[in-house]
Amino acid sequence: MKTATPLVLGLALTLTLSVPATGTVIYDEARDGDLSDVAASPTALALGAGSNRIVGTAGVGLSDVDFFTLSLGAGLRLDGLFLDGYAGSNLSFIAVQPGDEWTEDVGGATAIDPANLLGWTHFGPGDVGNDILASLGSGAGASGFSPPLGSGVYTFLVQETAPVSIHYAFDFQVTPVPEPPLWALLGVGVVLLARRLRAAPR
Q: Which of 28, 66, 78, 68 is nearest to 44 (CA)?
C-alpha cells in the first residue's frame, strides 16, 4: 500500500479541523507561535463575550504540551467549551486549575494528582462539535464544578501521551452574567426601606 505524502496528510488534517465556525480566533499556533510548554508561565489570554477559539497542536509523547491561562472578567461566565476540530489520535487530555500557573506535572495518573485540579476530561474525534465543559467539571477526583464557570483566572493543560501529534480547536463560549430584572431590584429596595422604617426611632 502506498504511503500518503505529507501534503495529503496536511490536507486531511485541515479538512478535519475545518468545521463550521464563526467565532473569534484568540490564538492559533500556526499564526501566533507555540503555546507555552512551561507550567509556571502559561500563555496568557483574555476571554471576551461570545466565541473564543484556540487552535493548536500537542503530543509526540509529551514533547509538546500546551499551557494557557484564560482570564474571565467580572460580569462574564464560561457557558460552553466546544471541541471544534480534532485530528491525530483516539483520546487526548485537557485539565484546568484555578490561578495563573500549572502546579502539577504532565503525563499520566502518577504525574497528575486529580485532587489538585478543578477539572479534567479526555477528548477525541467523537467529541467534535460537542460541548465538553460539563465533562471537564466532573473529572473523577477533581474538586469539580457545574457549568457555567464564573469569572476568574484559570490555567489549562492540553496533552497527548501517545507518540503522535494531535491537532485541536477549542471554542470557549462566554456570555455576560444576566442582570437582575428591574422588578427584583425594586423588591429589594422596598424590603430595605421597610427595615429602615421599622428601625427608625419613634
A: 68
